[in-house]
Design brief:
Layout: E1 2-4, E2 7-10, H1 14-25, E3 31-34, E4 46-49, E5 52-55, H2 66-78, E6 81-85, E7 91-94, H3 98-105, E8 110-112, E9 117-123, E10 126-131, E11 136-139, E12 141-144, H4 148-155, H5 164-171, E13 174-185, E14 196-197, E15 205-210, H6 211-214, E16 220-226, H7 228-234, H8 239-249, E17 259-274, E18 281-282, E19 289-291, H9 308-326
Parallel strand pairs: 1-11, 2-3, 2-12, 3-8, 12-19
Antiparallel strand pairs: 4-5, 6-7, 9-10, 10-11, 13-16, 13-17, 14-15, 15-16, 18-19
Helix pairs in contact: 1-9
The structure holds flavin-adenine dinucleotide.
The site of flavin-adenine dinucleotide has 37 residues, from helix 1, strand 13, strand 17 and helix 9.
InterPro entries: Amino_oxidase, FAD/NAD-bd_sf
Organism: Paraliobacillus quinghaiensis
Pfam families: Amino_oxidase, NAD_binding_8
Amino acid sequence: MCEQTPIVIIGGGMAGIMAARTLKEKGYQDILIVDKSRSVGGRMATRRIEDGKVDHGAQFFTARTEKFQTFINDWIKEGSVKNWFGDKYHRYISTRGMNSFAKKLAEDISVRLETRIAAIMRNEDGYTLVTDHGESFNAKAVLVTVPAPQAKALLQSEGLQLDTKFLHKLDEIVFQPCLVGLFDLEQPTSLPVDGHLDSGLPEGVMRLVDHKKKGISPNTTVCIYMTSEWSKIHYDKGEEAVLEKMKEITSAYFDFNSVISSQLKKWRYAEATQFLREPFLNTELEYPLLVAGDAFLDPQDTANRTRLESAFISGIAAGEELAALLK
Ligand SMILES: Cc1cc2nc3c(=O)[nH]c(=O)nc-3n(C[C@H](O)[C@H](O)[C@H](O)COP(=O)(O)OP(=O)(O)OC[C@H]3O[C@@H](n4cnc5c(N)ncnc54)[C@H](O)[C@@H]3O)c2cc1C
């Protein structure tokens, strides 16, 4: 069966959600977000461990633009976001875990989960999106917000016949992986009172987080974020061996004799070290087909890094462009 929705957004992370919210604000109601995962949020990811929680993707957001700051201030008033730490640059967190905030942002948007788009093809009135289970969706306009290497795989399908120059632009974006160890501990940790440490750490370790001290978990659930170099070297090694290595390196901070459970999260596309200085790309085909996401930075962006704020700005810019093209 083929479903008809005028606007389909592939990917329900921050960029996809903000694009949908923008289109709604501009009067477009028939929008569908399609995401391969069990929840919206993408790299705004939270996992339950027993009665506790861990944010195992993005830990916090920072705001350098007025647009994002105003947005955050509204959610602070509403109670969903609070300042975690930091005087000059505040690190804001979702009070119930990153993923619940993503769900809240997407609550008025139609979403189809556990649906992976495998191909995009042209048809007479726009596009047909085909899932890896053979289901299909017809759309007049499509926005792709999956990480650039995955976007390229979708956009190079023969039926689209995109210019190779366009596809090469996506090759300019280079993502790095990140391995994250998730541990549920019986004993408290020696991390600072806010539960966050990202300096003076052993080689290979990027960040340590205690979610009980962070205020989102009743249990001592911790995350160990490894650097991209370390993650690259260990990416294909077995889970047990990688977790053992992480325990060895960080034993000064945690009592691993009290581990209740442990698991490994592998992010193949965590942060882009090479990105584009355009908030989205337009394929300029007859029917709108745009690409956006955190690696599409606004030319005015001063942080020079991919993050939740860059995804937020990119999603809004792509939503505005789609609305203009559909007029
Ligand atoms: C370990 C880690 C730590 C981080 N820490 C921070 C931090 O502390 N602060 C910060 O600001 N940023 C941080 N980031 C970066 C931040 O999470 C991202 O910049 C932001 O979430 C990206 O949003 P996005 O919408 O562009 O992409 P994503 O969140 O990746 O969303 C893309 C979505 O597309 C879906 N998808 C992919 N392929 C398909 C397909 N074929 N069909 C359907 N759906 C598909 C995915 O399931 C996903 O939901 C971190 C990222 C990681 C991984």
